[in-house]
Amino acid sequence: ALKSWTCGGRMMTVPCSRVGHMYRVHMSKTGRWPPVITAETMQNAGFDADYKRKYSIKGQMTDDFGKIVKLNNLRVLYLWANDETRRNYQKLMFGNEELPPEWKELMEKLKSQPAALEQMQKKKENQCQSFDWFDKHVYMRLTGTHHPLHSSRMNK
């Protein structure tokens, strides 16, 4: 929704509609949630071969699904949010405004990934609005408060 709102799209409310997130592996096939993530998937996401011993969150090791979710969040923030919002997320998730070295290395790899470069180009071509614009003109209007990662909410 963030990409759609900031790039001139809109959301519509459709009565009786159902919306959800579809994962490639369904719980009925694995018998567990979150699903098991293969080593190939982890490496395709940018994690190195030593990923099992690295990439903690707030000093705690996390499962592969958690690592993928955090990486996706960081990717969205890198491409669509401002520095302050990224620092707030990092402080919330990692206990520090700076990314741990192993996560910083992943984000450096992201900058040269074709998909990320394509998104940055589309953002520029479409003259997409900033995260601050989204917070003020969309999030605030819908919820009556700033986004949870906005500095006014993080400093309380």
From TrEMBL:
Gene Ontology cellular component annotations, sorted alphabetically: Golgi apparatus
GO terms for biological process, alphabetical: protein O-linked glycosylation
Keyword Disulfide bond: yes
Gene3D superfamilies tied to this protein: Spore Coat Polysaccharide Biosynthesis Protein SpsA, Chain A
Record InterPro entries: Nucleotide-diphossugar_trans (IPR029044)
GO molecular function: polypeptide N-acetylgalactosaminyltransferase activity
Protein name: Uncharacterized protein
Annotated organism of origin: Helicotheca tamesis
